[in-house]
Structure formats: C-alpha cells, structure tokens
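Sanity check

After download, print the first record. It should look like this:
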Amino acid sequence: MPVDIQTPYVGQPIVAKDSFFRRLPHVLEPSQKLRFEALVLSADTLEYAFQNMREVATRCGYQIDRVSSRDRTALLSSAWTIVDHLHAARQLIPHFFRDEPGPVTKAFLATTEVAQHFRNKMDHLNSNIGNLSKSKKLRTPLFGALSYFVTDEYRITSVGPELVNGYIMTIMAGSIFGGEHLPAVNPVGHGVAAPVDLFQLSGYGETLLLGTPLSMLSKILAGLEKDAETQIRIGVERLSAEKGIPVDELSGHHGGGLVVAVKVQFGPLAEADSPLGLSLTSASESGTPSLEPER
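Expected structure tokens:
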C-alpha cells in the first residue's frame, strides 16, 4: 500500500494527551474501559517505538561505522515492538464496529495482517529456526531486515523540500550464512519526510511499512473517540436522570497511570523473605484511589 504523503507519520501523537480516552468516566462498563485503555497504551507504545527508531536512525545517519551494536538492537527492537502493538490493536479495533468498518479501518486491518503473520512466526520461533536452517532458498534473517531511507541533502522549493540524494539503509542481526535476502526500501514515487523515513521490516517473504498503519491508526482513533465520547455522555446523562446523581459525579475519572515510591528503612528487625505488595482499595470521596500495603 502506498505511503500517505498527505499525512506522513514521523512520530506525532497518535492519541492526544488531553484525549477523552485518558479520562473515561468511572461508571463505564469495565470491559469497555479496559479495551479503550488497551488501545491507548498500544498507541502510546507505537508512538514511542517509532520516535525511538527515527531518533537512532537520524543520529547514525548513513555512516555505517556509527551504527553500533546497541543502535542496531534499538532499531530492530523498536520495529518488533511496533509489530507487537499493531497486532494488539488489530485485535481490539473490530470490537468497536457493529457494522462494516470504514475504508480507513479496512485498510488498516489489511495492512497490519503482515504484523499478525510476523507475530505468529515469533510465537513459533524454535520451529522456525529449524525451517530456516534447512531452507535452500533465499531467506531473510530470523528477526527480519529493517530498511529505511536517510538523507541530509535536500533543497527547499516553493512546493516544499526537494530531495537531492540519500541512502537506502538496511539493518539485520546475527550471522551471515549465505543465501540471505535483504529487501531494501525503494524511495522512488514516495513522499519522504527528511531526514529519515520509509521504515520497513521484511521477513518470512513479507514486508511491513511501519509508518503507514500508525498514520491510519491515528485517524481511526480520532473518529472512534468522537463517537465514543458522544455515546458515553448520552449514557451518563440517562443514568443521571434515572438515579438522581449529578452528571459531574458520574463523569468523574478515578485516575490511573500510578507511579509509587515506598521508602524502606532497614534495621535489625527487617524480614528479608516477607512478601510485600500494594492493593488499591475503594476510592475516596475525591475520586482518588487509596493505597494500602499488602503482606
């Protein structure tokens, strides 16, 4: 599928920081709330992984000796993180459509089918090692080949940046046995967001453009958020009328995304093997859950 040159994905937020999805009413049915929150976490992870991949590729440029073992690992692990969370998103999204999905959602599901195939290959990693080792055909490395286009030479024209030249980069991990096939991205005919763009992961005879489905997902979630907020507000207003509880009280969000720091004071009576945990108890009147130590 061609890259959407009108809205290239370069790491911009997929779900806005002030999104309704981040402050869902506490009265929302738990399974629905969990699905929305799972989508948000996957979207945030996709955004982070793509930004990280782009930052590393930009820093390394096209100088091969700048790409350290850590950089190569960062690039490939970010690509596979994107695969994992695209696979998660494509499982969740169909649940929100009672009727046939729209064209963007259909395109997203079709594009990310490769991510599902990749995920299945990793779920059967050990057997795939055996198959690859015996193959007499051209094969991609076990964890695929990541390719992208990088440039620092372009001129600004009246219609936007015009590329002068650039480099096709291809990254792989592991040893070379002979017979490896390393698909390389072709920038011809694609819009390129300098300095790096067109990330693609190839493996097992398939290729996934990593930025394209993220741009699609952003559009899908924007539309889903608008519809969900409208429907949920109508439901809250109906419940308010039935129960006689103010809308603001029903619409409250109990918070989340906790970061907890517990100071530990060591002394002669410390019990090294005593298990410790934290449990969330009932919410206080302010709508903030309280924390209690759990042993």
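If your output differs, re-run the checksum step. Summary of this record's structure: Strands lie at 145-157, 160-171, 196-203, 206-209, 277-283, 289-294.
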